[in-house]
Each structure stands twice: as structure tokens, then as C-alpha cells.
Amino acid sequence: MTVRILHVIDRVDCYGTSRQLSLLVQGLPRGQFSNRICALEVSPVLPEELSAAQVSFGAVASRGLTDPLWPARLWRLVREFRPQIIHGWGGRANVVAALATLAQRKAALVLSRRCVTSRSNIGGALRRRAILRKAHRIVVNSAAIWDECAAWGAPKEKLTLIPNGVAPPSTPALSRRQLLAELGLPRDCRLVCTAGRLDWYAGIKDAIWAADLLKVIREDVHLLVCGNGNQHDRLVQFRDQVRIQDKVHFLGLRTDLRWIVAHCDVFWATGCRGGQPNAILEAMAAAVPVVATQVPGHTELLQPNVTGFLISPGDRAALARFTNRLLDNVEMARRMGEAAQSYAVTEFSASKMVARYAHLYREGL
């Protein structure tokens, strides 16, 4: 029997949740699972795994949830597809997935929590608690989020921990020389990369400060900032104010992020919000040592002084200091990168992630 699954996601784009969903629908056996993706919004820049998955997807709301026609579109989609499982992928998508079960009452409801909530109000907390209690299963990708859901009152028997997965390492689609030529950077430069949504919690300002500190002691380091968000213009302005335009480069949203990361010497994860960033896993899989903030989620991925370094959020000096150590000590960087790669492809492989979801879906039926 083919299991029909409707995946509801806030936005299909190149960030972590979309990448994980794309890896999942690409890996689920087609003869056993039929997938359809219902997005509240669709970015013009899509993850490369999504096209490889050959799955039907589309936006149910052209203007987000302010679009008055989205409930009718959702109802029609559910009635046509008749999913046996409706899976919400966090945030607003969980609310929409719960509403979709009104049109398909026999469908099992699977909800997801993918980051620790750092800003909330009483109304939002009560709404999340009510929605989580309605679910048949609640998927979390880290122990910290498990604890948070349990604290909200989510029944522990409904919680399932499925860590993020990462694709096995492969030869980059573009060479380091091609990348440097595209960016107009010298061939002998050292590359540091940070990636993600450019929001208040990402710590990109700390990364810019750390790049400025590194510039004082060495001239060869260039920081690549991949991603976009509502803080983009403010961060570019801050970079210009500290006069480090020559060393900090904003690349925007890239579909080839993992190929860029593969050519970097160090990867930075400077956020202050707990979660399990896809970009850290991709850096580890590419054998790139990581310097990350010590927040829930990061600490589950990195083994301090073995696969990378952990620093306190906002500690720009430590970020620059550990990066300089890795750049100066090629053997230590190689050893850490290889340990990170081995850990990532063994413990966080995409195939393991897909197998866990397949088991969850079959169990849900």
C-alpha cells in the first residue's frame, strides 16, 4: 500500500527546514510513499534536492496567511489528494496542518518543532500547547527541543527525536579556483563562511566584529556571509561603518551553499537560538572545522576540541582566536575536519534520517 503524505511547510526556500524536507521526499521509496508539499510561500530560489525529488509542490497562499483564499485552496488540495498523514513542519505550518485535518479527519497529524523558542507571549505559548496536544506524533530534531515541548505539556509518548540528516560528501560542482574567481578574491586567501537567515538571532554582527579582529593580525582572511533576511541591509551598513568591506562579503541566498562551504577553511555558527543548523552538518560533512556558539543543538552536533570549538554567544574575541589557531595550525584543522566528517556521515546521514521518518509514518498508520 502506498502511503499518501501531505507535507505543510511555511516556506519552500534554501534554508534548513526546506533542505531537510527535500532530502526526505527524495529518499522515501516512491513505490511505498506518495508525497505532496503544500507551502504557504515559495521562494524563487529553491534547494537543488527538491528538483531531484520530482515531487509535486506549490503555494497555497500567494500572500501568506493574509490571503483570504488560502483556506479554500487548502480544503480543495486535501480533498483531492486524500492524505493518510498530514505533516506540519513547524511554525505557522503546524497550525495549517492541524486545520487540514478538518477536511480529512481520518488522517494522522504529525507536527514538528525545529528550534528552541526564545521569544514568546502567553497567547502564543497556549496556542502551541493546544496544537501539540492535538497531534498523533511530534517530531523534534534535538534533545533541547524535546525538553521544551515536554515543559509545554506535550505528552512524552507522542514525542519522537529524529536528528537532521546530511547528504554524503561528494566532489564540489565548482572548484575553489572558480569560486575565488567568481568572488574576485586572491588565490592565496583563507575563507571563513557563515550561513543562515539574517535575523536578530543569527549573530552576524558578532561575526563581522570577529572578522575585523582577525584583520588586525592577518591580511588573508575573507568572511563569506550566505543568506538573506530582514537584517540584511542593517548588517551591510554596519560592515561599511566598521570599514571592512574588503574582508566581509554578502553572497545572498545560494543554492550551492554546500559547495561554497566545502572550499572554506573554517565555518562559523554564531547564532544565539537553539536548534540543529543544517549548515553546521554540511560543513562537518565537508571536513571543515567549525567554531560555534555553545547553545542547545550546537552542543549536540559538535564535540569540543575534537570536531570543532564551542564559544559563548557574543564572544567575538574567542571566535577570532580559535579561528586564527585553526588557520595557523593546518594539521590540527585537518584532524578536526576529518573527525567532524566521520561523525557527521556516521551519526547524521540522510539515509538514517529518511529511515526514521519512514518508520514513523508506517507506525502512524
Q: How would you sum up this structure, described in words?
A:
The protein is 43% helix and 20% strand. α1 crosses α15 (350-364), α8 packs across α13 (316-328) and α11 (278-285) packs across α14 (330-347). β2 (33-42), α2 and β3 form a beta-alpha-beta unit. The chain is an alpha/beta fold. It has 15 helices and 14 strands. The chain has a seven-stranded parallel β-sheet with strand order 3-2-1-5-6-7-8, with helices on both faces. The protein has a six-stranded parallel β-sheet with strand order 11-10-9-12-13-14, sandwiched between helices. It has helices at 16-27, 48-53, 70-81, 92-100, 122-134, 143-152, 176-183, 204-217, 232-241, 257-262, 278-285, 298-301, 316-328, 330-347, 350-364, and strands spanning 3-12, 33-42, 56-59, 62-65, 85-88, 108-113, 137-140, 159-161, 190-195, 221-226, 248-252, 266-269, 290-293, 308-311. It is elongated. The mean pLDDT is 90. It has two domains: 3-165 and 349-364, Glycogen Phosphorylase B (Rossmann fold), CATH 3.40.50.2000; 176-347, Rossmann fold (3-Layer(aba) Sandwich).
Helix-strand sequence: EHEHEEHEHEHEHEHEHEHEHEHEHEHHH
Main sheet: strands, sense, barrel: 7 strands, parallel
The residue-averaged pLDDT reads 90
Shape: elongated
Level-1 CATH class name of the largest domain: Alpha Beta
CATH architecture of the largest domain: 3-Layer(aba) Sandwich
Structural domain tally = 2
Distance between the termini: 11 Å
Number of strands: 14
